[in-house]
Each structure stands twice: as structure tokens, then as C-alpha cells.
Amino acid sequence: xxxxxxxxxxxxxxxxxxxxxxxxxxxxxxxxxxxxxxxxxxxxxxxxxxxxxxxxxxxxxxxxxxx
Length: 67
Hints:
A hairpin with a 5-residue loop joins strand 1 and strand 2 (15-18). The relative contact order is 0.19. The chain has one domain (2-66). The protein has helices at 21-25, 44-66; strands spanning 2-9, 15-18, 30-38. It is built from two helices and three strands, in the order E-E-H-E-H. The longest helix is centred in the C-terminal third of the chain and has 23 residues, at 44-66. It has a three-stranded antiparallel β-sheet. By secondary structure, it is an alpha+beta fold.
């Protein structure tokens, strides 16, 4: 999944990043840049299961290559 991030410049010139549009435009702030970031929302258990599955697939591929 991807999440929208806003790079924001405040009235005093400082910059910060936020994912909240209402914060980005509050108090006269200006959005300088908008960009997407990949966000992995899987739980640690799901990540571990995916790693184990990938390991098994790689192992089978190597077995087939060896003959």
C-alpha cells in the first residue's frame, strides 16, 4: 500500500512532513511537495510467514536446477 505525504512550509519558514492534509494546510501553511511512500501494513506474523514461504520456494527452485 502507498500513503500520501505532504512536505509543508510554515509561515516562519520551517519545513516538516505529514500525512494529514488538514495539518498540512492549517494556519496558512503551504504544501511544498506531495509524494507517495510505500507502507507495509502486514503484521510481524504475516511477514514471518511470507519469509518462510519465500525460503521454501527458493529451496524448491534450487533443487530443480540441481537436477
